[in-house]
Amino acid sequence: MRKNRFQIWVAILSLALFAGGCATVPGGRITDSRKRIYLKDLCERYSVPWQWDHISQTVDLKIEGTSVRLLAGSNILLLGKEQIKLNAPVTIDQSSVMLPHDFKIKVMDRFPKLFSAKAPARVMKAPRVFRKLREVVIDAGHGGKDPGALGVMGMQEKTVVLDIARRLKKLLEAAGVKVTMTRKDDTFFSLPERTAIASRSRADLFISIHANSSPVRSVHGVEVYCLKDLGTLEKNEAQRQANHKLMFKNLAMKKGSVNLDDIVADMLYTHKQSVSPALAANLVERVAQTAKTRDRGEKQSRFFVLRNTLIPAVLAEIGFVTNPREGRLLKTDDYRQKIAEGLAKGILGYGDGR
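^ thats the sequence. predicted structure below, dont judge the formating
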């Protein structure tokens, strides 16, 4: 596997080639009564190397040296540098990757020698490929001139969340996950700068860590936000468009192709909206269990860092600095470590499909 891999949604369109054999996803026959193609059996029959990424729902094939990339739920694929539109989207049926029947005409028929009816079936002896989480962007909220929420005993939000972010970084790195921090110390970074860092990275997800406050001192607990659906104006927000350009610099596609840019942007948004709620729900549950605090649930919002990041993103409010008991706990190393461990469990569980 090449070390310099794109993040899972950039991999939808990148043209980097990969090594290794077929992934193992349960399958059946080459086609069924509805004329769909079982990708696994196609792979095994013709010795076509491929990989299935359960996180991004993307499929990578390599046919006679040519890269083919597909996305479950989309009818757009890349064959080399060429964009191809299928009559129906790629689907998942009982853990099997299913291709529409015109995949044969538009892709397979371009390789008549390989896909000849007389081509012998060959036995594949390749290992199972199970792609886990590779890179995460951790955003410790506020910093520098912006202290964030002020809590009991003079506690500042920026200090609490930076410490938890550092602890989370160590836990994820110990699990083999690369981590990019938007800030490593008490430095101020603007919201646009934070989202730009995420867009330049090759990360699988973005998590912004914050601490809550309330005029009602009894309010406590953890809650995690994912992005609420955006309207047309919000999708065209200047920072969001700028971040698309940053990300698209990494894509091997025809420059200036407005139509393709729009397709990719829609793919990114659809994927983000499909997986972020599950990530948020997993995180809030794991943190609440580990820290033994109130689970305030998964919520939706249009916070700047959520609407202007293009990868799956969440914002975790890890507790209320204004609550007397929770505020005192958040000043302790032990409790901060429990919060970090809960976040790590949620992120790694998401990456492993649990």
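Confidence is low (pLDDT under 50) at residues 1-29, 117-131.
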